[in-house]
Amino acid sequence: MALKAARKRGLDLSVELQKIPTSPFRFRCLKPKHSTLEVFQKAREAGEEWVPGMPLAIVTYHTKRKEYEIMDGMMRICAAIMAGYDFIPAIVAKGETHDALYEILLEGYYGQDFVEMLAMANPSVDDNLRMGDAMRLAGK
User: Which residues of 53-70 are buried (b: 16+ CB within 10 A; e: fewer)?
Assistant: First the structure.
């Protein structure tokens, strides 16, 4: 439904791979799995900008509010912050597009429906989701 509405309204469904600051994100009472935190710490120590093979977080950026919103990857962002990352690569979509579809997206599972819609319009998002699915199936 959201994809159909977005196309009908001519909304921007594009995404960009960007290096974003971690400073806008602060978490209380959120604790990533020890194994997740450990791979982020090792990647940071090795000078990697992200854990190789780990799906990227997907966020929106609202240009008017100058604000990020996490759609997928909260635990990964939290682990990156705990490991000492100041910037991380992320897939960034338009916050205004999310806002325009808010009423439709309310009927589903918050960010996941938006991410799945983006995956239908962007092969890079689809590939990122498949990487995450493969990791879950492998028990990682």
Answer: ebbbbbbbbeeeeeebbb
**Residue 63 scores a pLDDT above 80:** yes
Task: Answer whether 0.70 is exceeded by the pTM.
Answer: yes
Per-residue pLDDT of 89-111, as tens digits, reads: 999 999 999 999 998 888 776 67
Residue of 105, 33, 29 whose CA lies nearest to 69: 105
Q: Quick check: 75 and 30 in contact, CB under 8 A?
A: yes
Secondary-structure class of domain 2-130 per CATH: alpha beta
Q: Where are the domains of the chain?
A: 2-130
